[in-house]
Design goal:
CATH architecture of the largest domain: Sandwich
Helix content: 10-25%
Number of strands: 24
Strand order of the largest sheet: 15-18-12-11-20-23-22
Low-confidence stretches: 1-17, 23-27, 298-311
Number of domains: 2
Strand content: over 45%
Distance between the termini: 110 Å
Shape: elongated
Order of helices and strands: HEEEEEEEEEEEEEEEEEEEEEEEEH
CATH superfamily of the largest domain: tricorn interacting facor f3 domain
Radius of gyration: 28 Å
Structural class: mainly beta
């Protein structure tokens, strides 16, 4: 039987049915995600829906990962998936959408029901034309000497695409690059928003080939340097909003580019001196020096030996 209800009452009934459906899904061990795929309208505040785009639901666990369902968005850009609640505590689910050759991913779907803003994904047009990727932050961490007289260095960059298009690399080009010391060894890409597969090094340069979508992205990497490379000069290269240097050796200092020392920090029981500079120009050069303890005069050692012999 089909019921004809007044518009207002139909809306109330629909809301109640959706709520009951979501509650039922959670109770029966079935999860639900429903959202939209949207695209910015230039400088207009509201994005518009993208119809007919393929959206895929993925499952990843310690045993591996795979896509488990896919659908196309409707005329309003909507998509919807129901899927079994994971029995593996390591499993996570997320959705992806491909647009203009770029794949965009949602955040992990941690709740039994995810909808609205938490499930919406934004896609962008792309450009390979030169554009500014703003360096919001750069963080350099210098460790103490190890047994091989080498220092581990970690660098973390906060890169911001402030446009409404995704920056892609032109043929044989990059989306971002920066320098590393000539004697850097054991280069490794760390955790962040840019995959190690899209980062390479070449003649003292770190070259990023990954697309950089609008918003803030984090790039991190590490390498090792011999003790003889210090004092170390680090060219800024890019204008940087906040430049931070952490030095584990308590004799270390960072100077140049307006650096000043602030309160030290403790990380995993290790104490680091901390230096910060703001609004660093691309032409600036940061100098990281680690001073050796001063040598004592020869007569001091003679006196110590004499006292020791006298005590004996």
């Amino acid at each position: 039987m089909i019921l004809a209800l007044p518009a207002r009452r139909r809306t109330v009934v629909l809301v109640l049915l959706l709520a009951l459906s979501a509650a039922s899904a959670a109770a029966q061990g079935t999860r639900l995600v429903e959202g939209r795929v949207l695209k910015p309208r230039g400088n207009l505040p509201d994005p518009f829906p993208v119809a007919g785009i393929m959206v895929t639901l993925h499952r990843v666990a310690s045993s591996g990962g795979r896509p488990i369902d896919s659908t196309r968005t409707d005329a309003g850009g909507h998509y919807r998936f129901r899927y079994p609640a994971p029995t593996d505590s390591t499993a996570i689910h997320f959705v992806s959408a491909g647009y203009a050759g770029i794949t965009y991913f949602s955040a992990p779907l941690r709740d039994p029901v995810v909808r609205g803003n938490d499930a919406d994904m934004t896609v962008f047009d792309t450009t390979s034309r030169p554009m500014t990727i703003t360096q919001r932050g750069r963080h350099v961490v210098v460790s103490a000497l190890d047994s091989a007289r080498r220092r581990a260095v970690i660098e973390v960059f906060e890169l911001s695409n402030d446009s409404s298009v995704t920056r892609v690399a032109p043929p044989d080009g990059t989306t971002w690059e920066g320098g590393i010391p000539a004697h850097a060894r054991d280069f490794r890409v760390g955790e962040g928003d840019i995959s190690a597969d899209a980062v390479r090094t070449e003649t003292g340069r770190v070259l990023v080939e990954a697309p950089i979508a609008p918003g803030l992205k984090q790039l991190s990497f590490s390498y090792e340097l011999p003790a003889g490379d210090f004092p170390l000069s680090i060219p800024a290269e890019h204008r940087t909003d906040v430049f931070e240097v952490l030095i584990e050796d308590q004799a270390g200092v960072a100077t140049g580019a307006g650096f000043g020392e602030v309160d030290p920090v403790n990380v995993d029981g290790r104490r680091f001196r901390r230096f910060i500079a703001r609004d660093v120009p691309p032409t600036a050069v940061v100098r990281v020096a680690i001073d050796a303890p001063p040598l004592l005069p020869r007569r001091y050692y003679i006196m110590v030996v004499a006292l020791a012999l006298g005590a004996g």
